[in-house]
């Protein structure tokens, strides 16, 4: 709009379409593109119609790569936690309208003997404590039941302004997807263990060399 290529109304429409797409309402965006393409063709504006056709093709290919993983249109965040005595690996799926919209992973040090339930609670509080309320989904699916679940649900519900369910999926597609995510966390922790083992080997070699040097 700052160079007058579009007016304010058209700019607002572009932004609304982008927000709808990122929010998972992709069918509405596709329908709008098809209507615009048909209108451009009817007006004999073939250049614009071709551009819209290309946009539609790009959008369709992007959606094919980001296929529906949960057919019920779920809005959820999914957390898988795998830990050993020294570290914990966490993998997260952000699922909106049944599609995986983002993925995060991290490995953190364990500073005490806290069990997995307490680790999961601490993870959720840290993760959502810095997020705005709109970022808390309707469902939080976890690999381990968190400690003090009732208090955690109350806090998340307050953050969101609507009911939030925190649970371990027991069957169906959600259980299968959580198993896949847990596999990612298991592999991430195994990779970290290899790195850790390499560090210990290097350290032991350095100490042996230092011992020889100092006799």
Weakly predicted, low-confidence segments: none
Mean pLDDT, all residues: 87
Helical fraction: 55-70%
Given helix and strand content, the structural type is alpha/beta
Radius of gyration: 24 Å
Describe this structure as you would to a colleague.
The chain is α/β, with parallel strands linked by helices and 215 residues long. 56% of the residues lie in helices and 17% in strands. It has helices at 8-22, 26-42, 46-65, 116-129, 149-160, 172-214, and strands at residues 76-83, 87-96, 99-109, 139-142, 165-167. A five-stranded mixed β-sheet has the order 3-2-1-4-5. A hairpin with a 3-residue loop joins strand 1 and strand 2. The termini are far apart. The model has no long low-confidence stretch (mean pLDDT 87).
Give a quick set of tags describing it.
single chain, 215 residues, alpha/beta, five-stranded mixed β-sheet, 17% strand
């Amino acid at each position: 709009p700052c160079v007058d290529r579009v007016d304010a109304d058209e700019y607002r429409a572009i932004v609304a379409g982008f927000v709808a797409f990122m929010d998972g309402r992709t069918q509405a965006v596709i329908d709008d593109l098809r209507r615009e393409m048909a209108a451009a063709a009817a007006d004999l504006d073939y250049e614009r119609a071709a551009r819209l056709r290309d946009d539609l093709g790009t959008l369709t290919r992007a959606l094919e790569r980001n296929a529906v993983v949960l057919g019920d249109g779920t809005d959820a965040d999914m957390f898988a936690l795998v830990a050993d005595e020294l570290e914990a690996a966490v993998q997260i799926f952000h699922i909106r309208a049944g599609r995986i919209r983002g993925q995060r992973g991290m490995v953190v040090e364990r500073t005490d003997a806290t069990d997995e339930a307490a680790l999961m609670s601490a993870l959720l509080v840290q993760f959502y404590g810095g997020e705005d309320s709109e970022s808390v989904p309707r469902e939080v699916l976890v690999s381990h039941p968190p400690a003090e679940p009732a208090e955690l649900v109350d806090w998340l519900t307050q953050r969101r302004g609507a009911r939030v369910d925190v649970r371990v999926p027991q069957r169906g597609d959600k259980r299968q997807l959580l198993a896949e995510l847990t596999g990612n966390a298991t592999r991430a922790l195994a990779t970290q263990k290899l790195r850790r083992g390499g560090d210990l080997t290097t350290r032991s070699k350095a100490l042996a060399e230092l011992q020889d040097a100092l006799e």
